[in-house]
Specification:
Layout lengths: L18 E3 L23 E3 L8 H6 L11 H10 L7 H7 L4 H9 L5 H8 L21 H16 L10 E5 L6 H12 L2 E6 H5 L4 H15 L5 E6 L15 H18 L5 E7 L17 E4 L5 H11 L6 H9 L6 H17 L6 H6 L5 E2 L2 H20 L3 E8 L2 E2 L9 E7 L7 H22 L13 H14 L13 H5 L5 H24 L1 H14 L1 E5 L4 E3 L1
Parallel strand pairs: 1-2, 3-6, 3-7, 4-5, 5-6
Antiparallel strand pairs: 8-10, 9-11, 9-12, 12-13
Helix pairs in contact: 2-3, 2-4, 9-10, 11-12, 11-13, 15-16, 15-20, 16-17, 16-19, 17-19
């Protein structure tokens, strides 16, 4: 437009020039701001990505609204002629058609363009990346379909056939440390052909006081929001904070109110080509307003890899040069290990091979396997009794249609916990939980401990001690029931679910929680005393076969 209107170059930088963008790209120190009806003096042409960017009053004042189609090959050569450049071949012009504006403008102003330079132009808008594409990595099975769809949409957006607001533009990844959240971000950016802007909430907060935190946050968003395409990866996402359900007047509440409001404002005003990825170990701590539709509406949970995925991860890090059968066997010995731990194991095994001046071999990986200690038969039987209690009570109370018990014969003493046994369920639908079904869940959670008491009299510590344990889950449900759902003796609301789960309630209600836990434990204990022979028989089968599945009909399937 500057060329067509013959505007002098020194006029280009004027804040209120004859040609303006409706939503200027944010640049440090720039005075540009979003156009308003009070900025029309001297304006001849306003350019917008979409008509929705232009306020309605400006649309009304406009003499004409022109919908500019995606440039075709003939348009590119016409623009080169206007710029005083010689035309390029139709084949080259067609290859450039549909590319981002910065690529087309670069092609217009280049005096001469060779075949090699055309190829460079086509990839000009893509960042230089050294990392792998997400689809080259093992794992991430649940999130890959979403990424595949988003990549397809991004390509349509680049061609101008899809508006950015139609794309899914944010995702939360949750899971324990080492499950690959940070690795995902880099591979995700590579897959989309976007730059990666990585930061942490801790880095924002370490900048200083409130204003420093807000400025650090704004800088991260501004770095991503340049229109070229970026993945903004924010680690420790739950640390953005949660606004209080009810104002308390405490200074800390006001601080988080300001931080979250500013964060929401920046999410709402992100320009085109920015996808936000948040990583957290505690998704329940994230303010619900951040997760609503139109902001960060997708959530995927990354779990520790299972045996087959562990083998795939090992194959990836060993460049596919070792027997997959051997890697599957090794992966089976690494139960509970994260993807990061597997990568570390391969790295140290390579170091061992280099010291012997040779290539990596399977024996190097085997030498790095953690030394496991066996469970005694008595310990395995106790584990089986514990899991049999969960399984039998879950079916008896209609919590599940089937339950599968797995018992390990050894454990890794270097691990943070020793999951010697576990029970997985095929749950029955419970879309509208009632007081009765919530109490059933508590009984199922406490049934492992109750089974040990029914068979051995004395219980082990395996039901508690950590977040996610049987006792912790049962306590959390009881506190929600009493303090949030209003299903205790008094229908009272003491706080949202996340507020009542992790801290004690007032004594009156905490006493009620303790009574609920006592009653449901006694309920499960009584059921299992009556079925003691079934508990013992099911535990013996689980130990003998390693894995047993039972269904509500009472049939057992050992494998």
């Amino acid at each position: 437009m500057h060329l067509l209107l013959d505007i002098e170059r020194e006029e280009w930088g004027e804040q209120y020039g004859k040609i303006r963008l409706a939503s200027p790209v944010k640049k440090k120190g720039s005075a540009d701001k979003q156009i308003s009806v009070f900025d029309l003096k001297g304006l001849r042409v306003l350019i917008a990505n979409h008509i929705a960017e232009v306020p309605k009053d400006i649309r009304f004042a406009a003499q004409r609204i022109v919908d500019v189609e995606t440039p075709q090959a003939r348009h590119i050569n016409a623009a080169r002629r206007v710029a005083g450049r010689s035309p390029i071949s139709n084949e080259h012009a067609a290859a450039l058609a549909g590319r981002p504006q910065n690529v087309i403008v670069a092609a217009i102003f280049k005096k001469m363009i060779s075949d090699k330079e055309i190829a460079e132009l086509i990839d000009l808008d893509r960042p230089d990346v050294a990392g792998p594409c997400l689809f080259e990595l093992p794992g991430y099975h649940d999130v890959k379909p979403w990424v595949r769809g988003l990549r397809r949409d991004v390509e349509q957006w680049r061609r101008g056939s899809l508006v950015w607001k139609e794309l899914s533009r944010g995702v939360i990844l949750s899971g324990p440390p080492g499950t690959g959240k940070t690795l995902f971000a880099g591979a995700f950016a590579t897959t989309l052909g976007f730059r990666l802007i990585a930061t942490t909430v801790g880095a924002w907060q370490s900048a200083g006081h409130l204003n420093d935190t807000l400025n650090a946050m704004r800088k991260s968003f501004d770095d991503a929001n340049d229109g070229r395409g970026a993945v903004l990866f924010i680690d420790e996402f739950d640390s953005v904070g949660t606004r209080p359900a009810r104002p308390s007047g405490h200074h800390n509440d006001q601080y988080w109110q300001i931080v979250i409001n500013e964060f929401l404002s920046m999410l709402n005003n992100l320009g085109e080509g920015v996808v936000v990825v948040g990583a957290t170990n505690n998704p329940e701590w994230i303010d619900p307003a951040i997760l609503r539709a139109g902001r960060i509406e997708n959530h995927f949970t990354l779990t520790l890899p299972d045996a087959s995925t562990r083998a795939e991860i090992l194959r990836y890090h060993t460049d596919g040069k070792l027997s997959f059968e051997a890697l599957t066997e090794i992966g089976g010995e690494l139960d509970g290990k994260s993807a990061a731990s597997l990568e570390e194991l391969v790295r140290y095994a390579r170091q061992d091979a280099r010291e012997d001046n040779r290539e990596l071999e399977v024996r190097d990986l085997r030498a790095r396997l953690p030394e496991k200690r066996p469970y005694t038969l008595e310990q395995q039987f106790r584990l089986g009794v514990h899991e049999a209690g969960h399984a039998l009570v879950s079916l008896a109370l209609g919590y599940a249609s089937s339950a599968t018990i797995e018992i390990k014969d050894s454990f890794d003493p270097t691990a943070t916990s020793f999951p010697g046994g576990q029970t997985s369920y095929e749950l029955l639908d419970d879309y509208l939980p009632t007081e009765a079904t919530l109490l059933n869940r508590i009984a199922v959670a406490l049934a492992g401990m109750a089974a040990e008491a029914a068979v051995f009299e004395h219980r082990s510590v395996g039901s508690g001690g950590v977040v996610g344990s049987d006792v912790e889950r049962a306590t959390a449900i009881a506190r929600r029931l009493v303090g949030s759902y209003g299903l205790g003796k008094s229908p009272v609301f003491l706080g949202a679910v996340e507020e009542v789960v992790n801290k004690p309630l007032p004594d009156l209600f905490e006493n009620e929680v303790v009574e609920i836990l006592r009653v449901q434990y006694e309920r499960a204990y009584t059921m299992l005393v009556d079925e003691r022979e079934r508990v013992v028989g099911l535990a013996a089968d689980a130990v003998a076969h390693g894995r047993v599945k039972i269904e509500r009909a009472g049939q057992a399937d050992a494998a």
